[in-house]
Amino acid sequence: MDRVIRAVDRKNRRTTGLVGLDLALEGGFPKGTTIAVIGTATNGLDLFAGQFWRGDAETSEEGCYLMLDAEPSEGMTDLRGVGPERVPDLMHGQKVVIDSLSTVILEYGIEEALRLIGRASAFAAETRANVLFLIYNGIHSTEEEIRLLRAVDGVLDLKQTVDGPEVERRMGIFKMKGLDLPHKLVPYNITAEGLELSTTTRVV
Protein backbone atom coordinates (compact mmCIF):
# COMPACT_ATOMS: atom_id res chain seq x y z
CA MET A 1 0.00 0.00 0.00
CA ASP A 2 2.81 2.43 0.90
CA ARG A 3 4.45 1.85 -2.48
CA VAL A 4 1.20 2.69 -4.30
CA ILE A 5 0.70 5.87 -2.27
CA ARG A 6 4.28 7.00 -2.86
CA ALA A 7 3.97 6.38 -6.61
CA VAL A 8 0.79 8.46 -6.78
CA ASP A 9 2.36 11.22 -4.68
CA ARG A 10 5.37 11.49 -7.00
CA LYS A 11 3.03 12.08 -9.92
CA ASN A 12 1.72 15.06 -7.98
CA ARG A 13 5.19 16.47 -7.29
CA ARG A 14 7.46 18.68 -9.38
CA THR A 15 11.22 18.64 -8.93
CA THR A 16 12.69 21.58 -7.04
CA GLY A 17 15.93 21.34 -9.00
CA LEU A 18 17.78 20.09 -5.89
CA VAL A 19 17.99 16.34 -5.36
CA GLY A 20 18.27 16.66 -1.58
CA LEU A 21 15.25 18.95 -1.35
CA ASP A 22 13.21 16.61 -3.54
CA LEU A 23 14.00 13.83 -1.08
CA ALA A 24 12.97 15.97 1.89
CA LEU A 25 9.68 16.83 0.14
CA GLU A 26 8.91 13.25 -0.93
CA GLY A 27 9.46 14.02 -4.60
CA GLY A 28 9.39 17.82 -4.88
CA PHE A 29 6.92 20.68 -4.69
CA PRO A 30 3.25 19.67 -4.70
CA LYS A 31 1.92 20.65 -8.12
CA GLY A 32 -0.45 23.60 -8.22
CA THR A 33 1.11 25.51 -5.33
CA THR A 34 2.81 28.84 -4.62
CA ILE A 35 6.14 28.85 -2.77
CA ALA A 36 7.91 31.72 -1.01
CA VAL A 37 11.70 31.41 -0.79
CA ILE A 38 13.33 33.78 1.70
CA GLY A 39 17.02 34.64 1.55
CA THR A 40 19.65 37.19 0.63
CA ALA A 41 21.76 38.03 -2.39
CA THR A 42 24.71 36.14 -0.88
CA ASN A 43 23.19 32.90 0.38
CA GLY A 44 22.05 31.43 -2.93
CA LEU A 45 18.50 32.73 -3.29
CA ASP A 46 18.81 33.56 -6.99
CA LEU A 47 20.80 30.38 -7.69
CA PHE A 48 18.05 28.24 -6.23
CA ALA A 49 15.39 30.06 -8.28
CA GLY A 50 17.43 29.48 -11.45
CA GLN A 51 17.85 25.77 -10.70
CA PHE A 52 14.11 25.34 -10.24
CA TRP A 53 13.31 27.29 -13.41
CA ARG A 54 15.80 25.48 -15.62
CA GLY A 55 15.02 22.02 -14.26
CA ASP A 56 17.12 19.07 -15.39
CA ALA A 57 17.68 16.92 -18.45
CA GLU A 58 14.95 14.50 -17.39
CA THR A 59 12.17 17.09 -17.34
CA SER A 60 10.82 18.79 -20.44
CA GLU A 61 8.50 21.19 -18.62
CA GLU A 62 8.70 24.82 -19.62
CA GLY A 63 8.34 27.88 -17.49
CA CYS A 64 9.17 31.56 -17.18
CA TYR A 65 11.44 33.69 -15.03
CA LEU A 66 9.87 37.12 -14.51
CA MET A 67 12.63 39.54 -13.47
CA LEU A 68 11.43 42.68 -11.69
CA ASP A 69 14.67 43.51 -9.87
CA ALA A 70 17.72 43.56 -12.09
CA GLU A 71 19.21 42.98 -15.53
CA PRO A 72 17.69 39.69 -16.73
CA SER A 73 19.88 36.80 -17.84
CA GLU A 74 19.31 34.90 -21.06
CA GLY A 75 15.81 33.49 -21.32
CA MET A 76 14.36 35.63 -18.52
CA THR A 77 11.56 38.13 -19.07
CA ASP A 78 12.44 41.75 -18.29
CA LEU A 79 9.62 43.23 -16.18
CA ARG A 80 11.48 46.15 -14.65
CA GLY A 81 9.04 49.02 -14.36
CA VAL A 82 6.03 46.82 -15.11
CA GLY A 83 3.19 47.13 -12.60
CA PRO A 84 2.20 44.03 -10.58
CA GLU A 85 -1.28 44.02 -12.11
CA ARG A 86 0.27 42.94 -15.42
CA VAL A 87 2.50 40.20 -14.04
CA PRO A 88 -0.13 37.39 -13.86
CA ASP A 89 -0.97 37.87 -17.55
CA LEU A 90 2.67 37.08 -18.40
CA MET A 91 2.84 33.82 -16.44
CA HIS A 92 3.10 30.69 -18.55
CA GLY A 93 4.42 27.15 -18.28
CA GLN A 94 4.69 24.84 -15.31
CA LYS A 95 7.57 26.56 -13.47
CA VAL A 96 7.19 30.28 -12.81
CA VAL A 97 9.66 32.43 -10.86
CA ILE A 98 8.85 35.98 -9.75
CA ASP A 99 12.04 37.83 -8.78
CA SER A 100 11.11 39.41 -6.58
CA LEU A 101 8.04 39.92 -4.43
CA SER A 102 10.17 42.28 -2.34
CA THR A 103 10.30 44.74 -5.25
CA VAL A 104 6.50 44.69 -5.52
CA ILE A 105 6.16 45.45 -1.80
CA LEU A 106 8.72 48.25 -1.81
CA GLU A 107 7.40 49.95 -4.96
CA TYR A 108 3.66 49.26 -4.82
CA GLY A 109 2.84 48.20 -1.25
CA ILE A 110 1.80 45.05 0.60
CA GLU A 111 -1.77 45.01 -0.71
CA GLU A 112 -0.58 44.83 -4.33
CA ALA A 113 1.80 42.02 -3.37
CA LEU A 114 -1.05 40.07 -1.77
CA ARG A 115 -3.24 40.58 -4.83
CA LEU A 116 -0.41 39.24 -6.99
CA ILE A 117 -0.12 36.15 -4.76
CA GLY A 118 -3.87 35.60 -5.03
CA ARG A 119 -3.84 35.71 -8.83
CA ALA A 120 -0.72 33.53 -8.97
CA SER A 121 -2.42 31.00 -6.68
CA ALA A 122 -5.39 30.83 -9.03
CA PHE A 123 -3.05 30.34 -12.02
CA ALA A 124 -1.14 27.58 -10.21
CA ALA A 125 -4.30 25.75 -9.14
CA GLU A 126 -5.82 25.91 -12.62
CA THR A 127 -2.71 24.80 -14.54
CA ARG A 128 -1.03 22.63 -11.84
CA ALA A 129 2.01 24.88 -12.17
CA ASN A 130 4.29 26.03 -9.36
CA VAL A 131 4.93 29.72 -8.78
CA LEU A 132 8.08 30.62 -6.85
CA PHE A 133 8.23 34.04 -5.17
CA LEU A 134 11.60 35.39 -4.02
CA ILE A 135 11.56 37.47 -0.82
CA TYR A 136 14.66 39.23 0.45
CA ASN A 137 15.28 38.85 4.15
CA GLY A 138 15.47 41.77 6.58
CA ILE A 139 13.80 44.52 4.52
CA HIS A 140 10.12 44.03 5.37
CA SER A 141 8.16 44.55 8.56
CA THR A 142 7.11 41.59 10.70
CA GLU A 143 3.47 42.27 9.86
CA GLU A 144 4.18 42.26 6.12
CA GLU A 145 6.09 38.99 6.37
CA ILE A 146 3.32 37.31 8.35
CA ARG A 147 0.69 38.33 5.81
CA LEU A 148 2.83 37.17 2.89
CA LEU A 149 3.71 33.80 4.38
CA ARG A 150 0.10 33.07 5.31
CA ALA A 151 -0.94 33.71 1.69
CA VAL A 152 1.38 31.15 0.04
CA ASP A 153 1.29 27.34 0.14
CA GLY A 154 4.93 26.76 0.99
CA VAL A 155 7.80 28.58 2.72
CA LEU A 156 11.53 27.88 2.39
CA ASP A 157 14.08 29.94 4.33
CA LEU A 158 17.78 30.02 3.39
CA LYS A 159 19.82 30.80 6.49
CA GLN A 160 23.51 31.69 6.64
CA THR A 161 25.75 32.18 9.67
CA VAL A 162 29.45 33.02 9.88
CA ASP A 163 31.54 31.58 12.71
CA GLY A 164 35.13 32.76 12.36
CA PRO A 165 36.43 31.42 9.02
CA GLU A 166 33.45 29.04 8.64
CA VAL A 167 30.25 29.78 6.75
CA GLU A 168 27.32 27.59 7.67
CA ARG A 169 24.26 27.45 5.41
CA ARG A 170 21.01 25.69 6.27
CA MET A 171 17.59 25.54 4.66
CA GLY A 172 14.40 25.58 6.70
CA ILE A 173 11.23 24.06 5.25
CA PHE A 174 8.65 25.81 7.39
CA LYS A 175 5.45 25.28 5.42
CA MET A 176 4.41 23.03 2.53
CA LYS A 177 0.80 22.30 1.64
CA GLY A 178 -0.20 18.68 2.22
CA LEU A 179 3.20 17.49 3.49
CA ASP A 180 4.74 16.45 6.78
CA LEU A 181 7.77 18.68 7.28
CA PRO A 182 11.34 17.87 8.38
CA HIS A 183 11.99 18.63 12.04
CA LYS A 184 15.37 20.20 11.46
CA LEU A 185 17.24 22.63 9.23
CA VAL A 186 18.94 20.88 6.31
CA PRO A 187 22.57 21.85 5.46
CA TYR A 188 23.35 23.03 1.95
CA ASN A 189 26.40 24.20 0.01
CA ILE A 190 26.86 26.68 -2.83
CA THR A 191 28.84 25.12 -5.67
CA ALA A 192 29.80 26.20 -9.17
CA GLU A 193 26.63 24.48 -10.42
CA GLY A 194 24.36 26.06 -7.79
CA LEU A 195 22.89 24.91 -4.48
CA GLU A 196 23.49 21.38 -3.25
CA LEU A 197 21.38 20.13 -0.36
CA SER A 198 22.86 17.53 1.98
CA THR A 199 21.52 14.05 1.28
CA THR A 200 23.59 12.40 4.02
CA THR A 201 21.97 14.17 6.96
CA ARG A 202 19.00 12.18 8.21
CA VAL A 203 15.80 14.21 7.95
CA VAL A 204 13.23 13.26 10.61
Question: Which features does this protein show?
Answer:
Rossmann fold, two-stranded antiparallel sheet, 6 helices, 30% helix, disordered N terminus
Describe what this molecule looks like in 3D.
The chain has one domain: Rossmann fold (3-Layer(aba) Sandwich), CATH 3.40.50. The chain is 30% helix and 29% strand. It contains 6 helices and 11 strands. Helix 4 packs antiparallel against helix 5 (110-127) and helix 5 (110-127) packs parallel to helix 6 (142-151).
Quick synopsis:
It contains 6 helices and 11 strands. The chain has 204 residues and is an alpha/beta fold. The N terminus is likely disordered.
Helix vs. strand class: alpha/beta
Our count of helices gives 6
- Provide mean pLDDT, rounded: 89
**Name of the CATH architecture:** 3-Layer(aba) Sandwich
Q: Regions with pLDDT < 50 over 5+ consecutive residues?
A: 1-5
The termini sit apart by 22 Å
**Structural shape:** globular
* Biggest sheet architecture: 9 strands, mixed
Strand-residue fraction? 25-35%
Give the CATH class.
Alpha Beta
List the helices and strands and how they pair.
Layout: H1 2-11, E1 13-14, H2 19-24, E2 29-30, E3 34-39, H3 45-54, E4 63-67, E5 77-78, E6 95-99, H4 101-108, H5 110-127, E7 130-136, H6 142-151, E8 154-163, E9 166-176, E10 186-191, E11 194-197
Parallel strand pairs: 3-7, 3-8, 4-5, 4-6, 6-7
Antiparallel strand pairs: 1-2, 8-9, 9-10, 10-11
Helix pairs in contact: 4-5, 5-6
